[in-house]
Design a protein that fits this description.
heterodimer; A: alpha/beta; seven-stranded mixed beta sheet; B: Alpha-Beta Plaits; nine-stranded mixed beta sheet
């Protein structure tokens, strides 16, 4: 014992390092140490440069090997066919290790490669391939890809075009409504979803993954199979359907997990080979380290922070290869990695600087998630407006522990330090705020808002997130483990995968008002898409107008519910299995069931969603009608309808009167009360329905640039808005430019809405960086946040940018390629936003601090 | 404070006389040109600042020129103007013409009737100045009380010169304090002492401007003598209210060594522990002059360098005064 102490005292270099270690312990955050760290090292700078210099592309390899496997497994169990296809892709696709990489692996061999989900959306893909040939890839940035990839995709799509899982649901729905839903989709009120689970945001029980490694999961699956076989042998020679289904599925899990272990070994072999060729001894050492890591994880439990990160990444890009849609549900990154981080720091195996560089590498990996979903899902023009290369990887930080204590730790702070330094548009960072949150993390969050400039992190009420899950029947401790999925979905990261995918209705309430104004006629399609609620020119009271809107709303919900019930059963029955994703979800292996077959904890979270938005313009419009037409009589209803038909041309006086009517977002009672009514009535209506499994529907009101997308097809509105312009942003933010009384007034208005049952009520605000420069300014910002959340606010995000910067960026995109901007729940590179969205961001009222 | 009455400036004649009880009661509407919520630079914490219209001073560097006149005024923001010309048609005085990028208002013809504002689609034209009762202002102020509580903020009256409407401000502050809110008076210091005292009864903090110590220069740059201001500074210093002296650093006017030295001497003899804020000259108000069809009085004057501001701060600190830069 004494000898060891002597060694420590005399072995100078190590000893110096050892004695200088500032321990990483819970409850103490050495902010000065964190502030010294630079996560944007030369290595990361080179990697980011490479990313910025590369273009989005589509990769055909997954489609090719996926389909190749399917051709060879005809007749086998569908779960097993999925697993084998997954393993085949992993065994055969090209892999590479790029210069500077310490964390390896990627969804495609391209820096910005997207994997189209050919088996889910072959028809859409074929249409796209045809279109791209006509337009030579110039229309959509993402469609620049090689002839070889195009060929793979075409062959694969031809195979899938009559086998895709949504086929039966589509046919049922078409037979039922004769294409009306399609027209509504054209009008962008009601979106026609893929009608099959795509598992957008698969979570994972990372604690379990880290504790057991993949081999532990395989062992559990084997044991479960043995239990079933032993039990069924006792009862007779044949397996029941249920047992045989379970065994097939568990075997599929094993195939999937082994496929990824093998894939990791391919990276290890590649790294060893590269090390042999490498002349730079430093890089050689790194490559050997990569080999060592990939030989050990994900098969075995990670032994270090580095191995834990690499394990997470194998899980995450494996999920992407299995599902091939956007979204990564990263979950509580600072929580599940904390044990590895603190152990490495405390044992002197890693410095904070080294940990920061590893996190920097992690950020570069998240950048390699390139989206393809909206090409398939929306399936028509303008998808690039919605999702300019944002995949929606969402990291949640802070909050409370499972036993209700402050969960802030120094890794949370280090993550934000790196985030503000590397300045990437993804992942999103969601910070759970509560009053006991470590002041260091609060400070770091505000600083990151200021220095990142792209609305990172977004702030969430810790209490509201927990209450949301409690309301859905989640246990207390699990509820405290909530995290943000997608752009803004409150969920439980250890078992949620977004099986629901499709939405019951995708509702634009401004559109419903438009239908009410024109007695059911849609101004975009010139078809009668609504019901007849009377000619408003005959209305003598304002209440009749309100009632007409309410009738349109109820009819629309009824209509979409009817359609939903028609395809609901085939939606589940024909769904693909996802054995790899399910393997990491709590209770799936124990249940022996895929998450798409109701395996896993908290199936109630997977209930379908009502996605309804556009309340702000509808509410402001209704109030303008009340004030201008029925009270002040500055015009007749006939005048107003003429004005709307003519997009206000020649009716500037009337328009001005309508604009001057009170608006939601200024802490004024009347407009806020009407907005609350519209908001709550829609909630109550949706919550009154149940799905075929007895579940309450989820309410989903996020933003994601929906406002300009849906705004394009919405005609002029009585709030003075002109035809085709963007609608009120997100679902809770005041209409752009209408909140003229500053952030406290806007926040007060938002807090009047009852958001308890709602996923994704967003408030976007813009601040000038000057406001956050001083400590005093930061403290006021903190008070603002605190009061907002105490008053019942759920989410707020601050874009710290000045208008001049943005205008300049519009005219000189080449000089602003790294400018990150946040649009309603997600962020993107500024230069990739369409001018429409750019204008919208600029027109948001700048709040001066 | 006998000298107060003895040396009363002729310009102030009549100010005290307006304050009969009856008139005070009638004055309980304030003429306000802005109520700014989430103010962060007008006292501690998050505040609501009530900007009162009307000011006896006409400082060359004023960044709120719309606050100077007591009467309601037309202003035009050319950045929003779409050249539709509806205002030109609506104006019965033929006072408005289009300029290609905005409008020009002939102020000799304009009677501030507001007809043009009614027809302005993009809201480029607006009337400045609203009359509000104490109740109306309190209603607005209380809406942010939770933000005041978490930030130790409150309510500030600024201007213009709030002391021109002292009875209103006193009544407003009294109500604020009843509601437990912190009150701040942001003043040029020029006003009747009686009015000031009435306000001080309900004031927690006074932000007191000391612009120029030399009276000749003060008259030249602000239009009035500083004698009443200096007198009132002593009144505030002798009151229980907290006091912060604010010195706008105007190039060539108040940033001179002579003026800073004189200011230091004056502040030192007021009361111990007074904090000094220096407010470096800025040109944010420049466009407002255009909105009122006035030439910018400061011309091409440039903001001070950081070095010069730091030197001035150093002079205050060398004299043992706490000094902060407020921007």
């Amino acid at each position: 014992m004494s000898a060891v102490i002597d060694d420590l005292a005399t072995a100078t270099p190590i000893n110096v390092r050892m004695t200088k270690i500032i321990a990483a312990v819970l409850g103490k955050i050495p902010l000065a140490e964190i502030n010294k760290v630079n996560g944007f090292t030369e290595r990361i700078q080179r990697m980011k440069q490479r990313y910025l210099a590369s273009r989005p592309t589509i990769c055909g390899q997954r489609a090719r090997y996926w389909t190749e496997s399917y051709r060879a497994t005809e007749g086998e169990h569908p779960a097993k066919r999925r697993a084998k296809a997954f393993a085949n892709v992993l065994a055969k696709r090209n892999i590479l290790i790029r210069d500077d990489e310490i964390l390896v692996g990627a969804p495609t061999p391209h820096i910005r490669g997207a994997n189209p989900s050919v088996e889910q959306l072959p028809i859409h893909l074929l249409a796209l391939l045809d279109k791209v040939e006509v337009t030579a890839g110039s229309e959509v940035t993402v469609t620049q890809f090689s002839d070889e990839d195009r060929q793979y995709l075409r062959e694969a799509a031809e195979y899938w075009k009559d086998k895709y899982p949504a086929k039966r649901s589509f046919e049922t729905e078409n037979a039922l409504d004769g294409g009306k839903m399609h027209l509504m989709g054209e009008a962008r009120n009601a979106l026609r979803p893929p009608l099959t689970p795509q598992l957008f945001t698969p979570g994972a029980d990372m604690d379990k993954v880290f504790a057991l490694g993949f081999k532990g999961h395989i062992k559990q699956a084997r044991e479960h199979i043995d239990v079933i076989r032993t039990r069924s042998k006792a009862s007779g020679p044949y397996l029941s359907h249920e047992d045989s289904e379970k065994i097939e599925w568990l075997e599929a899990v094993i195939i999937s997990l082994e496929g990824m272990i093998h894939h990791a070994h391919r990276y290890a072999t590649l790294a060893r080979a590269a090390a042999k060729m490498e002349k730079d001894p430093r890089r050689q050492k790194e490559l050997l380290k990569v080999a060592e890591v990939c030989e050990w994880v994900p098969e075995n439990p990670p032994r270090s922070f580095h191995e834990a990160l690499q394990t997470y990444w194998f899980v995450a890009f494996g999920q992407e290869i299995e599902k091939a849609t956007t979204n990564a549900f990263v979950g509580r990154f600072d929580q599940y990695l904390w044990p590895f981080y603190s152990k490495d720091i405390n044992e002197g195996r890693i410095t904070r600087q080294e940990a920061a560089e590893l996190l920097g590498c992690m950020f570069m990996k998240w950048l390699e998630f390139e989206p393809f979903m909206f090409l398939g899902q929306v399936g028509k023009r303008d998808h690039q407006e919605i999702s300019p290369s944002n995949y929606y990887a969402n990291v949640t930080l802070g909050g409370t522990t499972r036993d209700g204590k402050d969960a802030s730790n120094e890794l949370s702070c280090l993550f934000l330090q790196v985030a503000k330094q590397v300045k990437t548009h993804q992942p999103h960072v969601s910070l759970r705020y509560h009053r006991l949150m470590a002041p260091e993390l609060l400070e770091k969050g505000i600083e990151c808002n200021r220095d990142h400039g792209g609305g990172i992190p977004a702030w969430f009420s810790d209490r509201m997130g927990t209450e949301y899950l409690l309301d859905r029947g989640v246990k207390w401790d699990d509820a405290r483990d909530w995290a943000m999925a997608g752009c803004i979905n409150t969920s439980y990261p250890k078992s949620f995968a977004w099986v629901r995918n499709a939405v019951v209705s995708f509702c634009n309430h401004s559109k419903l008002l438009e239908w009410a104004l024109f007695n059911g006629m849609d101004t975009w399609t010139n078809k009668k898409l609504g019901i007849e609620t009377g000619d408003p020119r005959t209305f003598t009271r304002w209440e009749q107008m309100l009632e007409a809107y309410e009738k349109q709303r109820d009819a629309f919900y009824e209509y979409t519910m009817k359609n939903f019930r028609a395809y609901e059963k085939s939606y589940y029955e024909d769904a693909f299995y996802f054995p790899y994703i399910s393997a990491f979800l709590q209770d799936c292996i124990a249940d022996g069931k895929d998450v798409t077959r109701f395996g896993g904890r908290y199936q109630q979270l997977e209930a379908f969603s009502f996605v309804d938005r556009g309340f702000q313009d509808a509410s402001d419009s209704l109030l303008a009608i009340k004030k201008v037409i029925f009270e002040d009589k500055k015009g007749t209803m006939a005048d107003l309808l003429d004005a709307l038909k003519n997009n206000w041309e020649g009716y500037e006086g009337l328009r001005q009167a309508c604009i001057a009517a009170p608006k939601y977002g200024n802490d004024e009672d009347e407009p806020d009360a009407l907005m609350c009514k519209l908001y709550k009535d829609a909630t109550d209506k949706c919550q009154s329905y149940r799905d075929g499994y007895g579940r309450r529907f989820t309410m989903f009101r996020q933003g994601a640039a929906w406002s300009s997308w849906a705004g394009k097809t919405t005609g002029a509105l009585p709030n003075g808005r002109k035809s085709g312009t963007h609608l009120g942003d997100a679902s809770a933010s005041p209409v752009q430019g209408c909140d003229v009384k500053g952030p406290t007034a806007a926040m007060n208005s938002v807090c009047k809405l009852d958001s308890t049952f709602i996923e994704g009520p967003l408030l976007n605000m813009k601040f000038s960086p000057a406001s956050l420069r001083t400590k005093g300014g930061q403290q006021k910002f903190a008070s603002l946040l605190d009061t907002y959340f105490e008053k019942g606010g759920f989410q707020v995000q601050f874009n710290v940018l000045d208008t001049e910067t943005l205008k300049l960026a519009q005219t000189q995109p080449e000089n602003h390629r790294d400018l990150v901007v946040r649009v309603a729940g997600y962020s993107a590179f500024w230069v990739e936003l369409s001018p429409v969205v750019q204008d919208e961001i600029i027109s948001r009222t700048e709040q001066c601090m | 404070m006998n000298d107060c009455e003895l040396d009363l400036d002729p310009a102030l004649d009549g100010l005290d006389e307006t304050l009969t009880d009856d008139e005070a009661a009638q004055l309980l509407t304030g003429r306000i040109f802005n109520i700014q919520r989430f103010s962060t630079e007008d006292g501690p914490g998050i505040r609501t600042t009530v900007f009162l219209k009307g000011c006896p001073l006409t400082c060359l560097w004023c960044s709120n020129p719309e606050s100077q006149q007591t009467r309601r005024q037309l202003a035009h923001n050319d950045a929003l103007c779409d050249q539709c010309g509806h205002c030109v048609t609506a104006c019965s005085k033929q006072a408005i013409e289009l300029t290609g990028t905005g409008v020009r208002v002939n102020r000799d013809l304009c009677d501030n009737c507001g007809d043009c504002v009614e027809v302005c689609g993009p809201r480029a034209l607006r009337m400045i100045g609203d009359d509000k009762t104490v109740d109306e202002v309190i209603e607005e102020v209380l809406r942010d009380r939770l933000y005041y509580r978490s930030s130790q903020g409150g309510v500030t009256c600024s201007g213009g010169e709030p002391l021109m409407q002292a009875p209103f401000v006193a009544a407003l502050f009294e109500r604020c304090q009843e509601a437990g809110l912190h009150t701040t008076l942001d003043t040029t210091g020029h006003g009747s002492t009686k009015g000031l005292k009435a306000v001080l009864k309900h004031t927690n903090l006074v932000l007191f401007d000391l612009k120029v110590m030399d009276d000749t220069l003060h008259r030249k740059t602000t239009g009035i003598t500083n004698r009443q201001i200096l007198r009132n500074a002593r009144v505030v210093a002798d009151s229980p209210a907290q006091m912060i002296v604010r010195v706008p650093l105007i190039p060539g006017v108040s940033d001179t060594d002579a003026n800073v030295t004189a200011t230091v001497q004056f502040v030192q003899q007021l009361r111990p522990g007074i904090v000094v804020n220096v407010l470096p000259y800025h040109r944010y108000g420049m466009n407002k002059y255009n909105m009122l069809d006035r030439a910018y009085p400061m011309g091409e004057a440039q903001p001070l360098t950081h070095e010069r501001v730091a030197q001035v701060v150093g002079m205050f600190e060398a004299a043992g005064l706490d000094c902060e830069i407020v921007t």
